Amino acid sequence: MADTGTDTARVPAVEGWFTTGDDGSAPALLGSRCTECGTYAFPAEQRYCGNPDCGSTTFETVELSRRGRIWSYTDARYQPPPPYVAADPYVPFCLAAVELAAEKLVVMGQVVPGVTVDDLTVGDEVELVIDTLYSEDGTDYLVWKWRPVGAGEA
Q: What is the pTM assigned to this prediction?
């Protein structure tokens, strides 16, 4: 997201689930990797490994793949209930379940504005970007979104 030159604070809408890239690095989802069996989880696991064959309770925090392929997608024609903060008037948007490139973990997220279900196909490559979910009291609340590779800036 480009610097607008304002004093607007930018904070994740959900703390600890992703980095914003505001420090100059690429934004990334934050997941966990089991130190015993290597199973990945998102959001990060903190209690027990999701692998039924593993009894580990120790994990390392890892940045997950920034790219993946669309596993499934749909559009949100209805306004989600709170705590989701919708534009007024409500504007439908696309959702995509994306299989991350290295981890083979499926992560759901919004697709960038301007992309409709007519623009998407299962298997399309997408990349993670950061966008504003909503703004309130001088603060932009940020989320990750999926952008088709080669589609330009969100």
A: 0.86
